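Risk mitigation, structural track. In case the binding assays with cytidine-5'-monophosphate fail to produce interpretable data, a predicted complex structure has been prepared as a fallback.
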Amino acid sequence: MNNKPIIALDFPGEKEVFQFLSQFEEQLFVKVGMELYMQEGPDIVRKIKEQGHDIFLDLKLHDIPNTVKSAMKGLARLGVDLVNVHAAGGKNMMEGALEGLEAGTPVGKKRAAIIAVTQLTSTTEEQMRNEQRIDLPLIDAVLHYAQLTKSAGLNGVVCSVHEARAIAEVCGEDFLRVTPGIRMAGGETHDQKRIATPDGAREDGSSLIVVGRAITGAANPVAAYKEVCELWEAK
Ligand code: C5P
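Fallback model:
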C-alpha cells in the first residue's frame, strides 16, 4: 500500500471507470465504493487490480459479527489493499472482520489493512445529537470510536481531518487516519461538512487522503490529481 492520494472512483459503471483511468500513465491508489461495487460486483475490483492500481474497497460493512466475518473472508480473496467497517458495529464485529480478513487472505499474500469509519464526514455534531442520540462533542465520540477500533486490533480509522491529530495522539502515529472531505481552496464543498485542503490534511495529521469530486469532476482530472499530489507531498 502506497501513500498517494486515494482517488474515489464514484462512477456509475465500468465504462466510466476505465475511461477515467485511461487518462493516467502512473499507477494510482483508488477507492471503489458502494456505488460502483453494487453495479459491477467483484469483477470491477479484479479488473482494476489487473492494471496494477492499489485499491481501497470502501464498503463500510456493518452487520452482526458472524456475517461481517464471512463477508470479509470473501473480500480478502479479491486482493485489495484496504477495507473498512463501521466502528458503530461494535468491538465484536470489528474483531470478526479482522478474523475473516485473516482467514480469507491467500497464503503468501499480504493481508489488507482494515480501518473503521468513526463518524461520516457528512455528519454534523447536531445530526449526531439529534439523530443518533449521541450526547457528546463530535471529537469525543470520534476519539471513543478510534480507541474502540484500536482495541479490536484494526489498523486505523476513517475520520475527518479535524480529528486526525487528536486520534494520533491517543492511538499512536502508526494508527492510520484516512481522511475524506478533501477540497481545493475555493472549490465546491458538495455534501461534505467537515472539509480540508490536501496540504491542510497533511499538516493536521492525516496518514492518507481520499479525494473524489475535486479530481473526478475537474475539467482536467490529471492536472487536478497532480495539484492534489503536490499539495499533499509539500512539507
Ligand atoms: O467527492 P468526495 O471527495 O466528497 O468523495 C469522498 C469519498 O469518500 C466518497 O466516496 C465517500 O463515500 C467517501 N467517504 C466519506 N466520508 C467517510 C467515509 C468515506 O466521504 N467518512
